[in-house]
Amino acid sequence: MSTLYLVGTPIGNLEDMTFRAVRILQEVDVIACEDTRVTGKLTHHYDIKTPLKSYHEHNKDKMTAVLVAMLEEGKSIALVSDAGLPLISDPGYELVTAVRDSGLSVVTVPGPNAALTALMTSGLSSYSFLFNGFLPRKESEKLAKLKLLMEQPHSILLYESPYRIKDTLTTIATVDEQRKVALARELTKRYEQVVTLPVGELLLKLEEDIPLKGEFVVVIDGQYDSIQQEQWWDALSLNAHVDHYIAAGQSSKDAIKQVAVDRGIKKREVYESFHIQS
């Protein structure tokens, strides 16, 4: 049966490739990837001869139809990103949706993830977290988003480029200069670095102690004030409580689930309130 495999690949250290991932990449008919040059280095290292096809943000609409047609012809395809897990702040969501809508098989082959690797190493709470990917580039929108995220009783996971990391840390400090933040760069590579400090202190270490090289993962400590954690939503209706989490970047499904957890009530009660009254 033809299958779309979602294959995790190393985020830096090539030794983090799994045996299963290598086998799947060898067995499929085509590997769909963001950049054939990047994935070509990986396939060359493991002597994988499977043809590569570009699938990225700028051609995904056209290539989704092409890849679904190949699957319908009986071929199997592996989707990979340049590093880590496909779909996580990378293209692929539209392809998975189209494949599932066509009644075809989708199988995930797990692998490394930069955000979770950073969280594990950071020393910040890993019991509950929100992944937000990349922040808006416009400063006013970035500030508004961070204010919402930093109200949450969860660790916040973000991606940032070396060119914008200083501005982003400055914006975080505008919201709360004492909030603990972990900066992780070059994860799993030779010069891996993870530094956790109040954000105001982190800013002083940029460039000299923390080089602006490599992609960054930012982990922001949650707002764990017990009164705020338990009562900040008391004045909100169920629907306004759900809308608060949606504005922070969660899907309606995840927001409804979180509201149910916050209030200690059944998810169906929140679901019916939100969808019947909204």
Automatic annotation (TrEMBL):
PANTHER family the record matches: RIBOSOMAL RNA SMALL SUBUNIT METHYLTRANSFERASE I
Protein purpose: Catalyzes the 2'-O-methylation of the ribose of cytidine 1402 (C1402) in 16S rRNA.
Coiled-coil region: none
Gene Ontology cellular component terms for the protein in this record: cytoplasm
Listed EC numbers: 2.1.1.198
Main location (coarse class): cytoplasm
Similarity remark: Belongs to the methyltransferase superfamily. RsmI family.
InterPro entries the UniProt entry points to: 4pyrrol_Mease, 4pyrrol_Methylase_sf, 4pyrrole_Mease_sub1, 4pyrrole_Mease_sub2, rRNA_ssu_MeTfrase_I, SAM_MeTrfase_RsmI_CS
Reaction(s) this enzyme catalyzes, per UniProt: cytidine(1402) in 16S rRNA + S-adenosyl-L-methionine = 2'-O-methylcytidine(1402) in 16S rRNA + S-adenosyl-L-homocysteine + H(+)
Sequence ranges assigned to domain Tetrapyrrole methylase in this UniProt record: 3-202
Chain ranges passing through the membrane: none
Keyword terms of this UniProt record: Cytoplasm, Methyltransferase, rRNA processing, S-adenosyl-L-methionine, Transferase
Gene name in the database record: rsmI
Location of this chain's protein in the cell: Cytoplasm
The protein's name in its UniProt record: Ribosomal RNA small subunit methyltransferase I
SUPFAM superfamilies per the UniProt record, alphabetical: Tetrapyrrole methylase (SSF53790)
UniProt-recorded Gene Ontology molecular function terms: rRNA (cytosine-2'-O-)-methyltransferase activity
